[in-house]
Structures
1.
Amino acid sequence: FSFRYNNIHEYQLEHPTRVIEWTSEKTICVAGYSSDKNEILELLLPLKLFADENQGLCAERDFKVVHGGFSDGSIHCLKHIPGTRYIIVAIDYVTYFCCHELSSSNCCFLLRCVVTNDGFNSNLQVWDLGGDDCDVIKRTGVLQLKSASSDKGVKITPGLTGGPCVLHGSQISDIQLTELTSGKPLYSLGKDIPDLLSSLQFVSGSVFVACACNGDLYVGDTRKPSALQNNPPGGREGAHWCMGVKTDLSSSDPSSCSVARLSSSCQVVVSDLRDLRAPLCQAQLHVQRKTTGDDFMKVTWAPALDNCLAVSGFDGMVQIYDTASWRPELMEFQPLFIHRGHMMSDDQFDTSSAVVTTHVWHPSRPRTVLSAAVDGSVHVWDWVDKATASC
């Protein structure tokens, strides 16, 4: 791998994960999705990865568990909620949250938290990731929410401004913003749109983009409950769609973000918020699909590289593409780089049995990517662009 990677490290989980969420520049949270009891872990990445100079002097070459706990059910969706210290109070069967001091035996301080969903109902579980004085990840609350299609689970995205809150929903009509400190809804869509939700993300403090499974994009504003734009894709290739959004959080103009929609027929359509109906560019990807399911489909933009996106969920590979050469007309393009590591961890080299379940880019290291597969493997790899010095 030396001629293709600057670094590559592997970790083996007891049960596979479909979630990798950054909790800091050097730590991630993963959790199992099996039907039995699952681990939820915060892992410290190998310190060798961050030793850009004198790597030979760095002894830490492995992932390290820094916090851990157990979930009684599967975890299909997990989001880290950046925020400040607050208190959780459990009363009866519902958990309420408050920001002021209380004298109660069932109060606990929450310094860092993640919110999860099991993929089968609309309830959200809140977890305390622990701190320096405790290495145990504990479930500290449950938000019992109603959803028209709760058996499909919900998608979650954290709020970007204000107190701790999450935007969530299982279909377009039940998208809601909920404040974690009170459990109160801050925003609800109030429109009867039963399309199932595949992806959800804020692009500014109040503007969000939602992608339906049929490929339609909806742009909403939590300040204006009645404002909702519907943007269907041109040329509906494939029965299932998801999206990846690249935002510039330093810009106050949400139209500066790019949206990539990925279809189950391995087509990517790139748009921006100025005109989501007309693609800026699109491509038929060079992917030989090895699975019939759509559960693991994922497209993500590189946060620290221009025009680069990664695609996974069709086989045992993560493919990276440079969209700079793509055109408005649909054409097939070759990937810039392919990570085949999860295929090679399988003795049979059978890509169908080593399907990648998820991948994420490092928030600041340009070519560092993490990926996981159905065999329980987790890889972190820093790839080399042999063609040019940058994308």
Note: The first helix runs from residue 341 to 344.
2.
Amino acid sequence: MAQPKADVVVVPPAAMPEPDIAAELDALAARSSPSPTTTSGAAPAAARPPLVVVGHRGSGMNALAAAPEDPRARGGDVRENTLRSFNAAAAAAGVAYVEFDVQVTKDGCPVIFHDNFIYTEENFQGEISGKRVTDLDLDEFLSYGPQRNQEKAGKPLLRKLKDGRILRWEARSEDALCTLREAFEGVDRRVGFNVELKFDDNLAYTEAALAAALRAVLEVVFEHAGGRPVIFSSFQPDAAQLVRKLQDKYPVYFLTNGGTQMYADPRRNSLEEAVRLCVAAGLQGIVSEVRAILRQPAAVAKIKEAKLSLMTYGQLNNVPEVVYVQHLMGVDGVIVDRVLEIAEAVSAFPAAAGESGSSEGGGRCERLGTAAAAGTPSFSTPEMSFHY
């Protein structure tokens, strides 16, 4: 029997004009990227600002099952969701944000970890045990994997893949697991944080449980963020709405697969439902799986008509040509694993878009047409045959 939802006291958002999040993202990207100039040295007036490039779990997720000959699928070589990974992304010119997953331990500490369960070998016989991250206290969580104190030996860290295999989790460049507070204190302040509020799809949460976890996260953010840009996002519709009610300082985005996967909760099954949720709850944007946008390009205009910002995530965002297409479509930002490659590619987009533009006449379509003629990307057969 489902538990009745507990009452929770929330702080209603203050009556204030909605921020133009897309403009803020564009401005941050412009500050983070080299500015193209004309022959006279002035910035081209007609240039479209670059997409915001967001490092996925820092400098890229660890895809343990990827074939060695497929570096594009392998993802990051630094252990994901660690200070080292975040700072590696921050060091790349053009990266405006790093994205990471936050869960709250049993004793109320927000920690950064993607998977719902954490696995290790408990003894020399190779016996594998898995525990839910939110069932651990902080000390136990930090005992897994590489340790900051070199004199301590951490528990071997394993990872369960979607196909059920459990593999040893190793990265070329290692680092210890970390807390949200450590990220605010130890990551280059040049980059903003895209904080994904992580909840298990297989659990039903009461409003009180969601509120307790969100308040623990907000306490750290309010105390340590300072002037760093922060975006909240979540696949959990109730959590996304609740974090918007609990604060109005930072924008909240709804994460969605946009229909590329189906869930019992209809709010998660289409871009139309995502827009409806955002408008009703006063959220500022949508983060969609990129395939959903490529399947429904007309949805971009509808999202913008609703005054929402749009970012995307997914493996196809590691293909520069796919990112370029999104730039032309009007997407505001992309979450990527191949951080250096995509950031470098995106830095060239405004120069092409503004090459023949002027401040008089010539709409956006004309400028983009000029860009396509001047520097149309070359799509290879494998890249054009992606299944979406």
Note: The chain has a mean pLDDT of 82.
